[in-house]
Fold this protein.
Amino acid sequence: MNTTRGADRVLRATVILALSIPGLAFGEWERQRMSPQEEDKGFLDVCALSSSFAVAVGVIKQSSQDAAAVFITRDGTSWAASSPRTSGGPMDVHMYLSVWFADESHGYVGGLGEIWTTDDGGATWVRTGLGGIMGGRAITDITGLRPAGPAWAAASTGQVLRTTDGGATWPELAVPLSGAGLNSVVFIDEEHGWVISGRAVTDEGTGAEVGFEQGGLAVTTDGGATWQVVFSGETRMVSSVRFVDASRGWMLSRDLAGSRLERTTDGGLTWQPVAVPAESSGGAVGGLSDVFFFDPCEGMLIGSVGDNDWGAVWHTVDGGETWVEVDRGFLRLGQIMGFPIEAGLLTFDFADRDVGWATGTYESIFRYDSDDDPPACDSGGGDGDGGGGGGGRCGCRAPGSGPAIPPVFVIGVTLAGAVRLSRAVIRERERERERGRT
């Protein structure tokens, strides 16, 4: 046997295998819905509950007019309008900005001066008036606990509201960041929660962003009754915050220098910078719009790239230390008047590691699926920064929930094995030469 040639074949095959490992994308994205009439129409929020049930809210084009819309999928594939019935009169104006469902029956939609509640999966809705459109208060975000428990709402006028009676009433709890409207509210249990604020300042003539203001973050450990201000009044806009437990979370913000991603391990009291992508296959990264982490290691990031603000998605398995861009092909929507178009991305949500949805411009909705079947996590120790499932290693994941080991680790181990094999072959050849001499 020619051991040298055999080793070369193994080494080449190993390198090809390592370079072709598909796990860098960790699943696939697929377009489910689009309407190429208006680029600036789309769904502003989405709530993913299971592989078959999700809800999106926003603004669509309907009979040549803009219309507030609630769309629901009950089979994970097709989407149908399930909007509240309104009078449709000239003064009956609505815009739906936020959505959250506790289960497939009970959910909330936040709008301008109102919150809508359903207990039959969106077939019927009941309105709670909060000043109406003339009151100037928008419900920018809603979150809650599953199974059905308390829910919290964030208002553009700075208040945090909470319901404990299934949405019948929404009493105000506090104003965590004085003088600033809230962009989002997050709770992971009945005690621990966070709110963020900040907005862009635009030129009245051109509409271009010329600065940012009122950036802030506040933390509660008593369900929202009292809040500790971590920072406020900064010249940035905090657009997203996600926590995987009471200690570990990520915060996305933007200022004139660009987008900033930070990580905390003490419940949001202190933050450390995390590197973000600067380039993509679609051009330079513009702004990053949302971040989501499944555990302390694996997460996704979306943003806009290039001169046309087309979308992009990145994936990490090491807590955000490194990011891998996902193939952008799913964002291509075809052509309008001979020009190729791609969707921008607005927000996303995941039911679990294996399924989720993202919303984009042109009223587009995209579904994410991952069907990888990795080995179970070990029960080894670690400093608590490991992945889901109990292990201490980043990339360790529960059975049936996606990739278990970062691809770079797989490549390293595979190539290391090939190198060891090659060295063994070389030693065998040297021994053969020695025997030939004797």
